[in-house]
Amino acid sequence: MNPLLLESESIAHKTSNNSYTLGPMQAGTPCCKPSTLLSIENLSLYYGNKPALENVSLDIYQGCITALIGPSGCGKTSFLSALNRLTDMIPDCTVTGNIHYKGIDLHDPTIELLKLRKEIGMIFQKPVPFPLSIRRNIELPLQEHGISKQSELSSIVQQVLLDVGLWEEVKNRLDSSALDLSGGQQQRICIARALALKPKVLLMDEPCSALDPISSAVVEDLIKRLQGSYTIVIVTHNLAQAKRIANYAGFFWVKETAGCLIEFGQCKQIFESPTHELTAAYVNGCRG
């Protein structure tokens, strides 16, 4: 039977010593003995009759950060959206090929999308906090997944705000609107909201691009701290950022109006010794 249908509704949020342990893995290095968590084979995506992606194949490794780089319009965000089937919400969007998560076919019609998107969360380019209090931003999705005990909700709220480095900044105004926070704080609230559901995978679509340099650095440091505890796939146009944080990188390009994957490998190899001339031109600033 489908494991995504058999999960307990309870969500474990703490280790035995009542705290999270974020992974110590050094950013930018390949994962030790990488284990495939997501396997994508011949993925193609169309909006109506227009191809956005064609025949993309790659593996996403557990506990690692995978950066997707390439110019605008080459299908990186479309690829990201296909990984937790947000593409289902787009009219006239057609996805072909195979996506397997923990060996499960994500296009299996028996999959419950609410549970899938709990396990594979999304952080968008522009922060999208709910027009509610800071506290309710985190409590609401938890309640949607069956957690109703106030003591448990309060504990989770505090824990995830600690994890994203926001607790000291907001602990005295949890009932204030999240919309009153700065852009960087709003993005960290959105990440905390995703972490509250204990996902296995975080999809991040240019999470720093709408932020000022200081806020961007704070969010980038947070992403590095999450490495090892979460599998992260991040779209970024900031090549220096990709080089700093990623273990693996995929370079996308447009060929004959459709996005495609030109090269995928360890981040160090992609940036220092790419095998494809287009990759070399892009990472050296000659193209794109």
Summarize the structure.
The protein is an alpha/beta fold and 288 residues long. It is 33% helix and 25% strand. The protein is globular.
Which terms would index this structure?
10 strands, 11 helices, four-stranded antiparallel sheet, alpha/beta
Written overview of the protein:
- With 288 residues, this protein is α/β, with parallel strands linked by helices.
- Helices cover 33% and strands 25% of the residues.
- The protein has helices at residues 3-6, 76-82, 113-119, 134-144, 150-163, 167-170, 183-195, 213-226, 239-245, 267-272, 277-283; strands at residues 36-47, 50-61, 65-69, 93-101, 104-105, 120-123, 201-205, 231-235, 248-255, 258-266.
- The strands form two sheets. It has a six-stranded mixed sheet, with helices on both faces.
- β9 and β10 (258-266) form a beta hairpin.
- α4 packs across α5.
- The longest helix has 14 residues, at 150-163.
- The model is unreliable at 5-27 (pLDDT under 50).
